[in-house]
Amino acid sequence: MIVAERKPLAEISKMLEPFRKICILGCGTCVTVCLAGGDKEAAEAAAALSLLRQNEGKDVEISTHTLLRQCEYEYIDDYAEQLAQYDVILSLACGVGVQTMATRLPDKIILPGLNTKFMGYPQEQGIWKENCLGCGNCVLDLTIGICPITRCAKSMLNGPCGGSQDGKCEVNKDIDCAWHLIHERLSKLGMLDRMEAIQPPKDWSTSHHGGPRTIIREDVRLENRE
Amino acid sequence: MKIESRLEKILSSGHFAVTGELGPPKSADLETLKHHAEEMRNHVDAYNITDNQTAIVRTSSIGVAAHLIQMGLEPNVQMTVRDRNRICLQSDLLGAVSFGVRNFLCLQGDHGKFGNEPASKNVYDLDSMQLIQAVKNMRDEGVFIGGEKLEHPLPKIFIGAVANPFADPFEYRPLRLAKKIAAGAQFIQTQCIFDLDRFEKWMEKVRELGLHKKVYIMGGVTPIKSVGAARYMQKNVSGMIVPEELITRIKGAEDKKKEGIKIAVETIQRLKEIEGVAGVHVMAIAWEEIVPEIVERAGLYPRPTVN
Ligand code: SF4
């Protein structure tokens, strides 16, 4: 899922400075699950901002709503009328949601309430880890399930750098060295020979380095079905 | 005039090689660096020039190499994959070869987070293995990574890589060396050796795999100036092992610097005895003036002449 964190209140407050009628809009999917931008977080942000404005002696009107997914037109469309009344919408969706909203509601001002961090998973309650960069050309077959592009700080494809010690990454002792994990995993599976072949330079053109990406599936496009 | 790597000639003719190291300054004033280069002129066969070491902005390795060549000295240009993509790495290599650089050391490089531009983008388009292979393919096949041909063949260049016997997983390290050799590495410089027992264990495995016959291995040696310096390396430099006994030994010595030199000399003497070690790489950054004494006391002076 997409993992995000709420922006600091001070930053949000500054962003919303010029506006009076504010909607804080939660998103019901990824950011709800990662406890950054769901119903509950929208209510918390609204309460905190209200208090702040009260202390500043400023009169504002803050409401909250939550869409199931801000990244899909059909959910946005269901709410478009309701949202029309606000001066600004502080979206607690990821960057995808914020932009889909801005595209679908071109007359509205949509501002981001979160910092979108990464694609990852909850390792345990309260800890999320990044594990996919969306490079567009998956190499998980090579390592049987541990991504060196994402989880090695240097995106190395041919084994660990000289900074790997005691299973930890040189960049930060709190991060496991991805290649240490890969070595451990392959050796347990009796597949260490996978680390022998020299992996050629990666084709980054399938990643964001090739520019913003689009997928077109002619087979499922509606206009082709009619 | 045909320029060839003197380092390669020294190693291939069976001499025990000595390389030194120069760290470019955080300015364009190279007077001090040139002074250090002069100090070691007769004591080292070639000079490594670090490439923005520990991710700190400094004069470029290739820029410094041009000065060394003018001084009649031989550079070993370090190239990390941290700051340059494949376009830039290949192009810089051509530029350096054009003015006479023949030794290249291909490295991964410390992560940008350690340096003075921690907000920078880390490139890592290639990894060090792929860089080694790319340089070899440019030289031997006359092709760039993308498959296009060079317009003219490259002269003979000598391809180096690094190995760290002190990093983990330990049992993988000799295999990683094998991989670097397969990629095209001809000479290897190791991480600074303070834990000789571990180094010897690594060398044992290297010999078992027959790797010492396929590549010239140069042991990394760094003289320790003080207890503080030793502690710093022990605690803060990733992939390094500084045994506690060594620190105790320096602590107990009356003249810490003298003891540091003595340890470096002893290390070199022990390295000379290890089958498969072809030379030493002396890294005395911020203590360059001591290199001649170490080389002399280790019995490696005068340096051989080759042509
Ligand atoms: S220590 Fe491991 S994870 Fe960290 S950069 Fe090196 S190889 Fe990658």
Write the layout of secondary structure elements.
The complex is a heterodimer of chains A (about 230) and B (about 300).
Chain A: E1 2-6, H1 9-15, E2 21-27, H2 30-33, H3 39-56, E3 61-67, H4 73-83, E4 88-91, H5 95-104, E5 110-112, E6 114-124, E7 127-132, H6 140-143, H7 148-151, E8 168-169, E9 172-176, H8 178-188, H9 222-225
Chain B: H1 6-12, E1 17-22, H2 31-40, E2 46-49, H3 61-70, E3 75-80, H4 86-98, E4 103-107, H5 128-140, E5 158-163, H6 173-183, E6 187-192, H7 196-208, E7 216-221, H8 227-236, H9 244-252, H10 256-273, E8 277-282, H11 291-297
Parallel strand pairs in B: 1-2, 1-8, 2-3, 3-4, 4-5, 5-6, 6-7, 7-8
Bound molecules: iron/sulfur cluster.
Notes on the protein architecture:
The complex is a heterodimer of chains A (226) and B (307). By secondary structure, chain A is of the alpha/beta class. Chain A has 2 domains: 2-118, Response regulator (Rossmann fold), CATH 3.40.50; 133-202, no CATH class. Helices cover 32% and strands 22% of the residues of chain A. Chain A is built from 9 helices and 9 strands. Chain A has helices at 9-15, 30-33, 39-56, 73-83, 95-104, 140-143, 148-151, 178-188, 222-225, and strands at residues 2-6, 21-27, 61-67, 88-91, 110-112, 114-124, 127-132, 168-169, 172-176. Chain A has a 4-stranded parallel β-sheet with strand order 3-2-4-5, with helices on both faces. Chain A has a 3-stranded antiparallel β-sheet with strand order 1-6-7. A two-stranded antiparallel ribbon of chain A has the order 8-9. In chain A, a hairpin with a 2-residue loop joins strand 6 and strand 7 (127-132). Chain B is an alpha/beta fold and 307 residues long. Chain B has helices at 6-12, 31-40, 61-70, 86-98, 128-140, 173-183, 196-208, 227-236, 244-252, 256-273, 291-297; strands at 17-22, 46-49, 75-80, 103-107, 158-163, 187-192, 216-221, 277-282. Chain B has an 8-stranded parallel β-barrel, surrounded by 6 helices. In chain B, helix 5 (128-140) runs parallel beside helix 6 and helix 10 packs across helix 11 (291-297). Chain B starts with 5 loop residues before the first helix and ends in a 10-residue tail after the last helix. At the A-B interface, helix 8 of A face helix 5 and helix 6 of B. Bound molecules: iron/sulfur cluster (SF4). Iron/sulfur cluster (SF4) binds next to helix 8 of chain A.
